[in-house]
Amino acid sequence: MDGDMADVSNMVPLKDISAKCDRVCIFGTGDFGRSLGYRFLQAGYNVVYGSRGQSNYGLLPKGSEVLGHAEAAEKCDIIILAIHREQYGFLSSLSHILERKVLVDVSNNLKMNQYPESNAQYLAQLLPKAIVVKAFNTVSAWALQSGTLDASRQVFVCGDDAESKERVMDIARRLGLTPLDQGYLLAATELENYPLQLFPLWRLPFYIAVGLTAFIFFYSVLTDVIYRYVTEHVDISFRIAVSLANRVFPVVSLILLGSVYLPGVIAAYLQLHRKTKYRRFPSWLDRWMLCRKQLGLVALGFAFLHVFYTLIIPNRYYVQNKRNNFILSKSKLGFVTLMLCTGHVLLYGWNKFLYSSRYNWYLPPAYMLSLVIPCTVLVLKFFLMTPCIDRKLTKIRQGWEGNVKHKPSQRYKDSSLV
């Protein structure tokens, strides 16, 4: 990383820093501090580095100013602390200068829950007269250098002072990032643990896929293997490894595929009910919508497993009746894919639900369970596609609001905050 950062000093900011603009102070001249400083210069900020030595001056971006910690802190109201917790000690000597200053803590730890309190809370205890805001700790130096084209744009922000927190969020927006308010400084512990988690956005889809797979598998074992053994004394447990597994994969895949599009449909009906798009969705729906991409990829993985298992089953009849291709795409093509997959299952068992012999212990076959969510999505989507509802939903998503009586100028002012 140090080798890559050697070129930062030769980079030219996109905007002329001689223009009148805000000034930001950065304590720390490491990889992250240099990358963040360059990004600030691109956004039109004046950057002042507070440093204890001159060894890294040649690596700092051109146009930045380097001063001692005390002198740099006096020049700025917002100070980015791009240093480790172990280096916070010298800040105590600057407490009279840092009073009422906004200190943005960007530090992380080497282990989850490494200390009794978060780094940001420790900083607030160390400097009680300063205002501490936690932010930028989930953004890497590489992401700042690459312009977040191939990285996450989300910046989680938390702090006890609402005004200072909003200032930091405005800075994040000006840098081209997307700030997300996480509440009070107490949430800093969770934010500092976040970068240490392995694929955090995959956790919920993984749990859903594992739980759903386990349920469908044991349900199929109960209605097929155990039922045959209890009622007919026939042991077909040898089918569990391949044939039964191949029944589970398409069922789980189709349910997950329906789960990708169900939250979008629910959100559309909520907007129609509220007659506005300028209201937050419930937290559970927000979280569901954020993991739709992961759910779709997991569904595609189960579909590939279904194709693979189908090809190795030596029963031609089973192959002919279970062959299926899953194609995941977005927008209208995604619903077409869902409709084709649902139609395939309906054609496969269109008349089987009529025979009572198919309901072992009065339980429906597993493939019927896979139709519940997809059919629900398609029916709800059908109503949304009707001209009268589609026109109203389009107006809402273009900014129209119902049951709200205020001046247009005020409406646009409010909507800009959402």
Helix and strand topology:
Layout: H1 2-5, E1 23-27, H2 31-42, E2 46-50, E3 65-67, H3 69-75, E4 78-81, E5 102-105, H4 119-126, E6 131-134, H5 141-146, E7 154-159, H6 162-174, E8 178-181, H7 188-193, H8 203-232, H9 240-274, H10 283-290, H11 292-312, H12 316-322, H13 331-348, H14 366-369, H15 372-385, H16 387-397, H17 408-415
Parallel strand pairs: 1-2, 1-4, 2-3, 4-5, 5-6, 7-8
Antiparallel strand pairs: 6-7
Can you describe this structure?
With 418 residues, the chain is an alpha/beta fold. 51% of the residues lie in helices and 8% in strands. It has 17 helices and eight strands. The protein has helices at residues 2-5, 31-42, 69-75, 119-126, 141-146, 162-174, 188-193, 203-232, 240-274, 283-290, 292-312, 316-322, 331-348, 366-369, 372-385, 387-397, 408-415, and strands at 23-27, 46-50, 65-67, 78-81, 102-105, 131-134, 154-159, 178-181. The protein has an eight-stranded mixed beta sheet with strand order 3-2-1-4-5-6-7-8, sandwiched between helices. Helix 6 links the parallel strand 7 and strand 8 (178-181). Helix 9 packs parallel to helix 15 (372-385). The radius of gyration is 28 Å and the shape is elongated. The two termini are 37 Å apart.
